[in-house]
Specification:
By secondary structure, the protein is mainly α. The protein contains 14 helices and 5 strands.
Length: 351
């Protein structure tokens, strides 16, 4: 007998019962247990983010939080997690694109949502990851800009005597990431041996003070040999820093940051980028990001036939193949050399 509060017809109640049975059987067959009825996409994403905070790099956590808050929750947040459909996710992507969001932004939304739903599937809260059923927008590889050897020499010439001459020199010759450069402390430099150790990275999170974090990966923690020009620039930089400290009547902090503000704090990411941009203008070189200095160091060495494994290790890449995938199109000499070797091999066999 039906409950006194249920005014639906017998047919409607039977249809609802049949639907619940089908859902339960589908979930059972998929090895899943349905998410609680109150578990929405928003509540799940929030709890998952908080649970992964300690295992994520600070910048990654902020990025994921921003994507969830600004792009996912406004559209999908109220939907029960167990009822999220591929069409709803597809509509979200279309809505973001039509609203002027870049394809890269939409792809980042897809990656964030896909990872979260994969966790829900592992926990058997949903039978399938609906993001698996959707193709995100294709994002063309970002164009890599580099300085030519002539432009790099001009930049170094113009920077001579600049307060940050050593920073620009190390950037263009050692290929460190910006965060790795700004995190350097004097104990990590051995100017007698001409080398430095990368043990940290400085990151900037909007609204917060810069943070020192672990290197990007185990390959990023490395020792890098310095050119004689970089060593000379660093020696001059240290001498100038000591003289400035003495003139200001304060002790020189030998354990402090190599590149720092007058109060001893590390240089900011933003101000360094602005000074790099001014330096390029002064050298009459086209505008490009500070990261282009790292790309320039890599391509100059590879074009000079320095072994790709050495360059890969210097850059802190995870593999030689990654280095080649990133820079091989800058090195036409590689293909020419391969053709020359093939000629020699075939000529030898025909004799």
């Amino acid at each position: 007998m039906a409950s006194g509060n249920d005014t639906r017809s017998s047919g409607a109640r039977k249809a609802e019962t049949a639907r619940k049975l089908r859902d339960a059987l589908s979930a059972r067959d998929a090895g899943a247990r349905r998410a609680p009825a109150k578990e929405t996409v928003a509540t799940f994403l929030d709890s998952r983010l908080e649970g992964t905070r300690s295992s994520l790099r600070p910048r990654t956590f902020v990025s994921y939080s921003q994507i969830v808050r600004d792009h996912v929750k406004p559209t999908l947040g109220r939907i029960p997690l167990a009822r999220l459909q591929p069409q709803q996710v597809q509509q979200l992507y279309a809505q973001l694109l039509s609203g002027g969001r870049a394809k890269k932004t939409v792809r980042n939304v897809h990656v964030t949502l896909h990872r979260a739903l994969a966790q829900a599937q592992r926990w058997r809260l949903v039978p399938t990851n609906v993001a698996d059923l959707i193709d995100p927008p294709r994002v063309p590889p970002a164009e890599i800009k580099v300085l030519t050897p002539e432009q790099a020499r001009k930049v170094l010439e113009v920077s001579r005597g600049d307060d940050l001459e050593a920073l620009w020199t190390v950037a263009l010759t050692a290929g460190l990431r910006q965060g790795e450069l700004l995190s350097l402390r004097w104990p990590e430099l051995d100017l007698d041996r001409g080398s430095l150790r990368v043990v940290a990275s400085l990151i900037r999170i909007v609204g917060n003070e810069p943070l020192l974090v672990e290197p990007k990966s185990r390959h990023s923690r490395r020792q890098v040999d310095l050119s004689s020009g970089a060593v000379d620039a660093l020696r001059r930089h240290r001498t100038n820093a000591i003289e400035s400290a003495l003139a200001a009547g304060r002790a020189y902090d030998r354990n402090g940051f190599v590149f720092r503000r007058p109060d001893g704090r590390p240089l900011s990411v933003t101000s360094t980028w602005k000074q790099w941009r001014r330096l390029l203008r002064a050298a009459e070189v086209p505008a490009m990001s500070f990261h282009s200095a790292r790309h320039t160091a890599a391509t100059l060495l590879l074009c000079a036939n320095v072994h790709v494994k050495i360059v890969s290790e210097m850059l802190g890449h995870s593999s030689v193949s990654f280095t080649l995938d990133r820079y091989s199109h800058f090195i036409p000499t590689i293909q020419r050399e391969a053709a020359r070797v093939m000629d020699e091999l075939l000529a030898t066999q025909l004799i």
